[in-house]
C-alpha cells in the first residue's frame, strides 16, 4: 500500500477524448486541479505545463510523438511525473508510448496506467481497478495515491513494459473476439480464442523484455476479459463489423473514437516478422483487416494449424 499522502495536486491531462476526460473526472473527484489540453482547444501547453506536477497523456498513439515534440521546448522539471495511458505502438519505430516518453524525457519518471478500464463504465461510476507501473516505485506510488478512490482501485507493479504491452496487444485480440461473437461461433470457440490469445501476448511480451507474470494481472488477462467481452470496446466493434462483412471504411465511419488495435496489428506483424515470433491470431486479424480473407477463412486457418502441445509457448521456444 502506498505511503504517499493524498495532497491535492495540479495535473495536466493531454488529450480530451473519452479516456482523457474520464481520467480527469476521477482526479477532479479526488480534489485535484485538472488542466486539460488537446490539439483542438485554445489552452496552450505553455499555460498549463509549468504549473503541473503530473502530466497524464491519453492521446492516441498517432499523436504521441507530435505532442512530445511540442512539450520538448518547455523544460520540464525532473520532478514532473509523466503518466501514459495510451494503448498503442508507434508505426515508425514500433516503440511503446512509455518508451517514446522516456526517450524524450530521460530524467523524468514515467508511469504506465493500464487495466480493464472501459471509459463509459468509469464515467457511470461503476467500480474498476487498474495498474500503475514504473521503474520508479516512488512515482508509481504517487500516481496510485492520486488516482485511488472508493470506486477506482489502483495497484502498482514494476514492469511498465509488460503492463503497457498487455493493454496494447489485447486490442488485437478484441478485434478477433468481436469477429468470433459477430459470427456467432459459440462460447466454446470464444473460450478457446481468449485462452490461446494470452500465451500469444506473453510470447510477444517476453521476447520484447516484459515479465510473463504481468500478463496474468489486470493489464493483461484483466483487460483481455473486459475488452473481448464488451460491445463498449471499439476494437471489439471493429471485429463485430468485419464478421458482418462490412468494410473497414464502413466500420470506421460509424465508430466513436479510436480503435488502436488496427494500427497495433500492423506494427505487431512487423515485430513478429523481424523477431520470428509466431502470432497466429494476430496474423489472421491482419489478413482480415486488409480484406485478404473472409472471417470463415480466418477460422478455418486457425483450426487447421499444426497440432502441438498446449504449453509449448510458455517455455520460450
Ligand atoms: N476509451 C477507453 O475506454 C480507453 C482508452 N485507452 C487508450 O487511450 C487512448 C485514447 O483513447 P480515447 O480517449 O478512447 O480515444 P479518443 O478517440 O476519444 O481520443 C483520442 C485523443 O487523442 C487526440 N489525438 C489524436 N490524434 C492526435 C494528434 N495527431 N495530435 C494530438 N492529439 C491527437 C485526440 O485529439 P482530438 O480530440 O483533437 O482529435 C483526442 O484527444 C488510446 O490509446 C486508447 O487505446 C485506454 C484505456 C481506456
Ligand atoms: O482499453 C480499453 C478498456 O480497457 C478500451 O478498449 P477500446 O479501445 O477497444 O474501446
UniProtKB/TrEMBL annotation:
Residues 43-136 form the Glycerol-3-phosphate dehydrogenase NAD-dependent N-terminal domain. Its main location: cytoplasm. GO terms for cellular component: cytosol. It is found in: Cytoplasm. Pathway: Membrane lipid metabolism; glycerophospholipid metabolism. Residues 159-300 form the Glycerol-3-phosphate dehydrogenase NAD-dependent C-terminal domain. Gene3D superfamilies: N-(1-d-carboxylethyl)-l-norvaline Dehydrogenase, domain 2, NAD(P)-binding Rossmann-like Domain. Catalyzes the reduction of the glycolytic intermediate dihydroxyacetone phosphate (DHAP) to sn-glycerol 3-phosphate (G3P), the key precursor for phospholipid synthesis. This is Glycerol-3-phosphate dehydrogenase [NAD(P)+]. It comes from Hyella patelloides LEGE 07179.
Amino acid at each position: 500500500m502506498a505511503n504517499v499522502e493524498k495532497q491535492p495536486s495540479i495535473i495536466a491531462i493531454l488529450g480530451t477524448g473519452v479516456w482523457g476526460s474520464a481520467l480527469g473526472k476521477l482526479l477532479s473527484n479526488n480534489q485535484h486541479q485538472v488542466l486539460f489540453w488537446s490539439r483542438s482547444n485554445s489552452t496552450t501547453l505553455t499555460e498549463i505545463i509549468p504549473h503541473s506536477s503530473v502530466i497524464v497523456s491519453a492521446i492516441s498513439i498517432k499523436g504521441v510523438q507530435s505532442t512530445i515534440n511540442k512539450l520538448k521546448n518547455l523544460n520540464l522539471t525532473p520532478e514532473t511525473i509523466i503518466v501514459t495511458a495510451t494503448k498503442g505502438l508507434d508505426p515508425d519505430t514500433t516503440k511503446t508510448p512509455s518508451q517514446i516518453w522516456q526517450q524524450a524525457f530521460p530524467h523524468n519518471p514515467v508511469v504506465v496506467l493500464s487495466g480493464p478500464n472501459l471509459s463509459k463504465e468509469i464515467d457511470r461510476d461503476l467500480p474498476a481497478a487498474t495498474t500503475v507501473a514504473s521503474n520508479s516505485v516512488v512515482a508509481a506510488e504517487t500516481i496510485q495515491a492520486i488516482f485511488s478512490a472508493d470506486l477506482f482501485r489502483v495497484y502498482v507493479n514494476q514492469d511498465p513494459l509488460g503492463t503497457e504491452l498487455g493493454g496494447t496487444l489485447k486490442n488485437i485480440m478484441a478485434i478477433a473476439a468481436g469477429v468470433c461473437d459477430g459470427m456467432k461461433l459459440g462460447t466454446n470457440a470464444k473460450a478457446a480464442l481468449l485462452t490461446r490469445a494470452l500465451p500469444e501476448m506473453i510470447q510477444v511480451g517476453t521476447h520484447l523484455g516484459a515479465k510473463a507474470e504481468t500478463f496474468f494481472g489486470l493489464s493483461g488477462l484483466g483487460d483481455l476479459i473486459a475488452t473481448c467481452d464488451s460491445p463498449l470496446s471499439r476494437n471489439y466493434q471493429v471485429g463485430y463489423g468485419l464478421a458482418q462483412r462490412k468494410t473497414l471504411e464502413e466500420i470506421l465511419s460509424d465508430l466513436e473514437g479510436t480503435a488502436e488495435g488496427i494500427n497495433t496489428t500492423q506494427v505487431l506483424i512487423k515485430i513478429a516478422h523481424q523477431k520470428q515470433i509466431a502470432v497466429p491470431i494476430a496474423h489472421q486479424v491482419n489478413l482480415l483487416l486488409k480484406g485478404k480473407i473472409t472471417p470463415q477463412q480466418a477460422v478455418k486457418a486457425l483450426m487447421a494449424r499444426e497440432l502441438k502441445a498446449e504449453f509449448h509457448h510458455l517455455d520460450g521456444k
